[in-house]
Structure formats: C-alpha cells, structure tokens
Write a structure and sequence with these properties.
With about 300 residues, the protein is mainly β. The strands form 4 sheets. Strands 2, 4, 5, 6, 8 and 9 form a 6-stranded mixed beta sheet that branches. Strands 10, 11, 12, 13 and 17 form a 5-stranded antiparallel beta sheet that branches. The structure holds copper (II) ion.
Amino acid sequence: MNNRFIRIVFVVLFVFGLTGRNHVFAETVGGKGHQHENMQYMPSMSEEETVASIKTEPEHITAGTPATIVSSIKDRQERPITDLTVHHDRLVHVVIASQDFSVFAHIHPEDFGSVTSEMKKTAQYPVKYTFPKAGRYIVGIDYAVKERPVSKHFSVHVAGGPEMGSPKKDMEREKRFGDLDVRFSPVQEHITAGKEVKLSYLFRKNGKAVTDLEPYLSAPMHLAIISGDLTRFMHTHGEIPGEAPMGHAEHMHMTVPKQFGPQIDVHVVFPAKGLYQIFGQVGYQGKVILTSFMVEVE
Ligand SMILES: [Cu+2]
C-alpha cells in the first residue's frame, strides 16, 4: 500500500515536471509546419483552440515601403476571439526578424495608438512596419487566450532592394550593445536538442557590473529564439538568478524588481539541431537594449 502510494506520487511528479519544463518546446511544435509565403488570411491550425493568421497591406511587400501587418485571431468556428488576455502589458506581440538576422523588431498594436473596440470586436490587430531589406523574414505573434499564452509564426517575402546578406555563423560570446558589454554563456559546452539548457547573460559597463537593469514589459528579459531556416520561433523570458523560476501561467502576473543585475538566466529547450539566433531585450535607463547571439544545437 505504502509502496504503491510512493509510486503514484513519483509518476505524478514526473509528468508534471515534463509538462512544466517543455512548454517552449510544445509551442514550437504547435506552430511548426504552417508557414506561408504572401499569405492572405491563411490560417495556422494546430492542436490549440485558436487559429491565427496574418495578412499584409499591401499584399506584396517591397523593402523601404511602409506596410501594415494585421494579425487575426479566431476560434475553430472562425469566430473572432474577442477576449484576449493582456500578457506582458500588451494584447499582441509581433516579432520580426530577417533570415540574415541583421534586422529585428518587437512591436505591438498598442505602439501605434490605443486598441479600438473595432479591433477587439473583429480580433484584428494591425502593426505598421517598414521592412528595410529584401528577402525572407519570420513574423512571430504572441497572444494569450484565457491566461494561456499562444505563439505562432509565419514567413514573409519582401521584394525590391537592397537584398539582405546571407546568414553568417557568429559564435562571438562578448559583444557591446549600446553602452553595455554583454557576455553570453551557455552553461553547457554542447547544447543538445530536446534537453533543457541554461543560458546566462552578464552585463557590464566600463568594466563594472551593471546592477540597475530594468524590467521590459514586465519581465527581466524578453527573448525571441529563431532557427536559421526560420521554421522555429520561441518567445521566452529571462529570470533573475536566485528568484524562484516561474511556470508559464505565472509569467502572466510576474513581479519583477525595479532594478536588478548583472546576471540574467534563461532556461530553454531547443526543439531540433541547427543554428539559432537569440535576440534578448532588456531595459536600461529608460531604453530597451537589444542583444543578439547565436548558438549551435546538436
Ligand atoms: Cu512584446
């Protein structure tokens, strides 16, 4: 009797541990295989109960010409989802990156004025963006339905010129971004697909540890992790070492100290082997510092 009880507890803990640690992985699988070129409300279906799509205005985008990207979020019966949950201070997060990883943007409908009741009623959320170079881009969108975060991604082709460069392998681990010197260190020497790894960021300014980093959109750090072939997109958040790590549900109501540093950790499960670019955004002196590093996953 006693023995059986212990076994049941073990099984429950094991299952809980698996689902808790692999949430990023699950999202990526959910969004996989639904990329579209020049989409016109082409839906991205998954096991989830929501169907997200994007359309662009104009439909065919040219580098240097302003475009509007409209995210549309519906349920399986094609009805607009009118009650998105605000997560990380915004209704919809739109992440844009070029395949050569020289271009990155993280924007929101709220950045262009207030969200109208018409947007909420139709669940269509526009953002404006001018793609600077021609070539392939990934557009990732994040939103939350009933407190549950959902992440989808799409592929967009931009015509015209100048062409973006070809992707380069860049394993530099110390770089300067704005005023800050950033050391990026994957804790494990070799990163293996499917296994959780810890990535650490250390921030210095003029040789001194930076202890006054600031939250950005209610997280110590926002990260967009994108595979070199643009087929995988993960949006995750940094943690302050020593603070209790939070599950996804708790991310919705994260409390972040007003100031922290110099270290930020991130726990990630990479879904497959290959090169990934990791864009990390952190607040500093009222601005957002964008960091960019590459890892190779075996
Ligand atoms: Cu955002």
